[in-house]
Amino acid sequence: MKKIENLLWIVLALIVVMAVIAASAAIFLRNGSGNYYGPYGMMGGGYAGMIIFMPVIGVLSAAFVLIFIYFFFEMLRGSNSDEHASNYGQAEKIIRERYARGEISEDDYNRMISNLRK
Q1: Which residues lie across from 38 on neighbouring strands?
Q2: For the whole model, what pTM was predicted?
Q3: Which residue range forms the structural domain that includes residue 100?
Q4: Domain for residue 37, yes or no?
Q5: Cβ-contact 7, 68 below 8 angstroms
Q6: If we measure between CA atoms, which residue out of 2, 9, 7, 10 comes closest to residue 84?
Q7: I need a surface site. Which of 10, 31, 116, 118 has the fewest CB within 10 A?
Q8: Smallest Cα–Cα separation from 60: which of 1, 92, 22, 17?
Q9: Is residue 43 part of a domain?
Q10: Cα(101)–Cα(110) distance, integer angstroms
Q11: How far is CA 13 from the centre of its chain?
Q12: Is residue 73 located within the same domain as residue 85?
């Protein structure tokens, strides 16, 4: 569940960054009043700022896709919590075997089991 939460925070951060870039592009590259053709004349020229913003948006989009793919395959691979739980099961089994052989006392057994389950 922690991986999904991390993925959601990363997606949210990328969306915010792209929104800030789009807003700054809209503010700094807006057309002012002018003649019939606009402030840049008949040949345009209002898209000159795209030289700056298009690569940035492209890199952010690629980063978003790569991060999404990474987290997707991490979720498919399975979480570490299952592996973690099986390790605890193995530890409890060893403690039970030691108690059965008489290597540890009942107090030691209870203390070790309670420590594992914390």
Answers
A1: 35
A2: 0.41
A3: 81-118
A4: no
A5: yes
A6: 2
A7: 118
A8: 17
A9: no
A10: 15
A11: 9
A12: no
